[in-house]
Fold this protein.
Amino acid sequence: MYDVAVIGAGIAGIEAATQLAQMGYEVLVVEKDGRAGGHVAGWDRLFPFRRNAAGLTAEMLKMMDRGKAVNILAGTTVADVQRDGQQFRIWLSDGQGITVSAVLIATGFKLFDARRKEEYGYGIYDNVITSADLEQMFASGKPVVTKKGERPKRVAFIHCVGSRDEKVNNRHCSKVCCATAVKQACEIKQMYPDAEVYCFYMDLRMFDRHFETMYLDAQAQYGVIFVRGRLSEAAESIDGRVTVKAEDTLMGKMLKISVDMAVLMAGMEAAEETDKLAAMLKVTVGKDGFLNPADECLQSNFTREKGVFVAGACTGPKTIPETLADARAAAVSIDGYIRVGSEEKSLREEIIGKIRNKREEIRSRRSRSEE
Amino acid sequence: MRQRFIYDPFVLPFMAGFVFIIIYLVAGIISAIRELPCEDRKKLGKSIFSRKIFVSAREIFMECLIHRRIFRRNRMLGFMHMSIAFGWFLLIVLGHIEVRLYCPERVNLPYFPIFFRYFMMETDSTLKGSLLFFLMDAALLMVLTGIGLALYKRINSRLMGMRRTTKLKLGDRIAMYTLWAVFPLRLLAESFTSGISGGSFLTRGFGLVFESFVSNEALIRPAWWAYSVALGTFFLAMPVSRYMHIPAEMLLIVLRNAGIKSKKTNAGYGNIELYSCSRCGICIDACQMSAAARLDRKTTVYFMRMLRRQEGDIEAAARQCLMCGRCVQACPVGIDSCRLKQNVRRSESFFSPVQYRYFPPTETIRTDVLYFAGCMTHLTPGIGKAMQTIFGRAGVNYRMMDEGGGICCGRPLMLSGQEKSAAIMIEKNTDIILQSNAELLVASCPVCYKIFNEEYSLPIPVMHHTQYIEQLIDRGAVTVGHTGLSAVYHDPCDLGRNSGVYNPPRQVLRQVANLMDTSHERGEGLCCGGSVGNAVLTGDQRRKIARDALYKLTGEKPDILVTACPLCKKTFAGAGLQQVEDIAQVVVKAME
């Protein structure tokens, strides 16, 4: 028997599940991939302080396992959901059915498929890669090289690929790519101090506490060159280099630069099949494909559908600290809903009784271990 | 039969309307023909005394009376139009036959056949008379059926296969309601008179029914008065209504068969096209801005009305168009409304020749085959790369004309009305092409292909890459296998409908993939929504059109959607629902 089903075992899902388990709930996490950790687990280092991403998810999973109240079903998806009074009956892709009191959607985002921005040549030109590809190169521990295996002398980072772009129907800003580009640009410079590194940006959105420092360091310490101008197109020369065309809007000049490697800062889109899941759970989807909470400010983890909650990037692009805070808030919202919001008295009392016992058990276990 | 009267005052409203419309039409036709350029007038003169006049007569019969093109679109709609037009025509013809047979001395009175049954009385039931009366009644019944259907169409147009029908203005409404009233009033008048004049199954039948509860004698003259007033009002309202299409379409058919086409101005032929529009509204459903983005009021029928009445922001209306040609294809009258819109789009307000100083000095390229990728292919490098692979495999001596960016073909400027600017591009590009000594120009973008064909006077043939690939395969210059993929082909507007290239892409695709049929192909092909013809549409509206087109095209779940236009490919990719590939890319896959 589970109390809460969490859909998605990215950092939002893990954090919310951990918090709910600590409150005494039995939680099932359904994850479509074969492993937990989501996008963060596949990343190398995180801005602003370049902490290890795999370390972060490993630590989170360890915290979660400590409660022993969370069960993760990897490689599983939600096949169907039916409301049964105050409860939800959920059928999973592996055939089993579970009944829960609340559902938390934490399906996160998917990276924009850069092939849709064909003029930048991803998937066509050898040396056009995405930020995620570069991060994997970093994670492999080997030096970053071009397709031919040479060290790049000139690298361009292209901001806003699939974000803030009406032409691919994504008006939203993906929030994390500016900081990621600056981080990756510095890392390239650190790896190859004599390489020329360019960032082509529309606006640099360095909104968070340490971001301006990163940006300053990138210029003063690393010598990254920032060009304000959106790329119009990229072309491949015979030697496999990439010629990028852009307008430097601050200088009012057209630029044409040949680089050894172009890195596309792919933006965020709502995860695959978010709309299908939303339809099953009767949650409304915004024009941008992300889910709509019941209220942007006061009920940011609630949805219009009672008992269905949202956390993390499924409601729009978020940084890691924002996602984690959102997940914790979702856990509190779910706890409040189950304890106070349940309309059926008998069910409510049953759950509360169970939780009371559970909490006492946790407390006694803790005091015993302290002794 | 015997004559009762020769005149009654109730003929006056009809005569007033009739004389007015005859004078108006004669003056209109003279001024329309005077507006034609001299060469066109000569063409017209020649055609009248040639076989062409019979072609025109046949077409007038098939289109203006039978409405064959509307029949092809929807049988009920065709039947409605035919019933009214052909039925009315029969009434007029049979009416004149009656006069010639029974009262030949009154042939010169224009109102006599119209009010024949009031002026004549039956003396004995001749066989001839009953046959003619039967035919007259049958024709009247036909018109009444058509009007019944027209009434019903105003309530439920879907029966006739129309999602939307035209919202009419005052002039049209007056003419339409009076036209609808004319025939029931005629039925009443003839029924009331049928005791004296005789009649057939319809008029005599109704006459007997009426006799049982009203005094037919007393109602005879009021009914004929009402009939005459309705007819007269219809004629008076005709010049400000859509019913000008009746005479204008006949003139249009004669001109078209004389080989006269729309020119760079809307005077003359264009004006006759305007008057030929019957505002049937078939173009409303054909337009994807209306079908997918709910811009019903921006469709061609409303533009045509604005242009004819010279009211509203005509230029804005002309610019709110994808120029995909679907309305032209659907138009039962064959009006080239895209040309009319193009002629309204004239402005040199922003660009001036001075602004093209940055053109690179023309570098001389020498080659056999010149390849013009075009700006959209530069933005979809997958297509350009595929073409280079194909050229390489075929061992063709080719050069790219716009490798480093090149000069625009000029069509987007042309479409936005900047003809002078476009002329500069055309001149520069023509220089490059001529200097190259190339034997062939290959274009990847249908937008460029169309302008190379139509506005450049090149001494060498121009091919779109679909045609060129077909030729290479036929020649054995490239050999292809079968990819095993199922494919739906999307006809780009400027390649298909607007340039008539339908078969080469299909020939190629049949060899490399399993080509699936859709109901939206060839002339009925859809616009992707990305058209450079419209610079006013918002991204959101374009997205709606693209998604709608994708849903319609991929209903059968093909592995790939194939197109032959970089702009279509890019627009569909932006909608992000289905993988779209250019035919060149599929061919490259099949070569491996």
Summary: Chain B touches chain A at residues 378-382, 385, 405, 539, 543, 569-570, 573-576 (CB under 8 Å). Chain B has a mean pLDDT of 91. The first strand of chain B starts at residue 2 and ends at 3. The CA atoms of residues 62 and 68 of chain B lie 6 Å apart.
